[in-house]
Amino acid sequence: MRTANVRTIVIWTLVALVGAAGWSVLALARGEDVSAAWMVAAALGSYAIGYRFYSKFIAYKVLKVDATRATPAERLNNGIDFHPTDRRVLLGHHFAAIAGAGPLVGPVLAAQMGYLPGTVWIIAGVIFAGAVQDMVVLFFSTRRDGRSLGQMAREEIGPFGGAAALIAAFAIMIILLGVLALVIVNALAASPWGTFSIAMTIPIALLMGFYLRVLRPGRVAEVSLIGVGLLLLALVAGRWVAESSWAGAFTLAPSTLVVWLVAYGFIASILPVWMLLAPRDYLSTFMKIGTIALLALGVVIALPTLKMDAVTDFASRGDGPVFAGSPFPFVFITIACGALSGFHSLISSGTTPKMIQKETQVRMIGYGSMLMESSVAIMALVAASIIDPGLYFAMNAPAGAIGTTVENASQVVTGWGYSISPAELAQAAKNVEEATLLSRTGGAPTLAVGVSEIFSKVTGGSLRAFWYHFAIMFEALFILTALDAGTRVGRFMLQDMLGNVYRPFRNISWKPGLVLTSAIVCALWGYFLWVGVHEPLGGINQLFPIFGISNQLLAAVALAVCTTLLVKSGRLKWAWITGIPLVWDATVTLTASFQKVFSSDPKVGFFKQRSVFQDAIDDGKVLPPAKSMDDMHTVVTNSTVDGVLTAVLALLIVVVIADALRVCVRHLRRPALSTLSEAPYVESKILAPAGLIPTRKEKEEARDAVTPTGV
To answer: What is the pTM of this model?
Structure first.
């Protein structure tokens, strides 16, 4: 035992030293080349320590997870929404569901401020806020029959604050789903390779679902090998299809993709969770984690240099071409999902608590999955920071700022202090077989260029174009898995809301209810997507500017609910675990909301932008990004809508936090008045490990009992 303890101490001391070395180099290096490997070292060392010590402390000391307590998946198992799911499959599902556009796109955009601010927030934010939120919400939802976040707020905070939480959460959910769908459409439009490969994941997932449910129950290793093999074949075949006569059949217009996405979202929402959703998300996780792991390995092998400044001049001036505003609060709003995401709380109180086998698994699935997503964000920041800064700004600045020719773009970007020649801009596009890379905004193309840069250093420059298009397809697959799970969670939220009025909706597997609510959710985000595809400044494009703020406001709701539950359940001394992140998130997000509504800078303030464009309309002028007078009127409308929505959502979140504070104070003064909606204790009959690898004790328990396992 003493030898084991010494070994453990040595191992974790080395991990700490690796992480500390990475942080030291990133923080202290000035004026010399810094390898991206130091960023990877800082991240992985910090993640390992955070998971090993902090998450274990929260799970067993604060939450007191109980392996003997039956979860909703076991007690309410109906094979549709409630279904005990093997921890490995559920880990894949949960990670795939939470890992949407945010960790890929946000860090790329935030690189405008330099690599250091984003790195600090991504790593510190996930350890102390994002992963904590995900795990604690999952725990409390599991204790409450898988209740949605809004419904938990209504039951634990009260009807007033709860109603505000329900409305805010559902509205934000529709916005998030529409934005995710738009990114997918943009990635897959006119891409037969990506469309074919992603389409093939659906029949592969159906095969895996039936394999585990009917053919070989519990054989997760077998179905994993089969699924991964078929997935790799689909990826390779996608390129064959793109170069064959079949390419036309899989080259779809954006409007066609919208129809297919809405249809897929509806079907995935109503089918039994074991049939399509869980196996497809599990399958995609292999590609997601595999690609990110290969990126990290590529960084260690190739040792690319971070070419972006640690902190750029745009950080101090707040007038960057990618987004305007100061690092506080806009770096935190822009990165969002890689560090703290309200969307995750909807998954943690949506599909996952209805599928988890044991309470003890909330640590691995809730905290662990969020660390995995944060690693994606770090690799995205690395990819954006290793390419030439001149190319980065040429790709991410709007056409209205840099023009449409490489000559004009070169001149403008050089004026910003990042020299790049027209020939270099043209060659960068040629390297990845694109006509141009100018103003390829949104973050995804920049990430693809960075990925191709890393992989081509290992495999050779001749494959640069292959890796670029692979990365574009990878991003679409990454985001699609959040769309299908998000639609199902949106259905749960709407059912909870309607269940307060009409009781049958409280049974989330009631078929008329699930079909109706799935159709409503798909129709809502599908409408905004359809309009956005057909009108460049309308539909979901109108709501895109409030994506980051709304996501962080939702995180404030989740943290407020968690803090209230910690207080009401007798864990007052541990309430700081979610209380401190709540104060930070509320401060950051409400500050950002205030600036977006009232700032006198038209690049920041919605109402100021509206005023500027309205004055231009009165003078008969057309300002970019508008190209016509109709566009000018659309910008005025969009600015008005965004400003009003931002103010309304911020007000709803203030109501939730204030009501939560009232409930906490009342509980401290008169605890007898407080009630908890926790489901009664039922002894569990399922034996399942808490982590990926069973401990010696868990193996012995499995040998001594017959385990009724799920899929």
So the answer is: 0.90
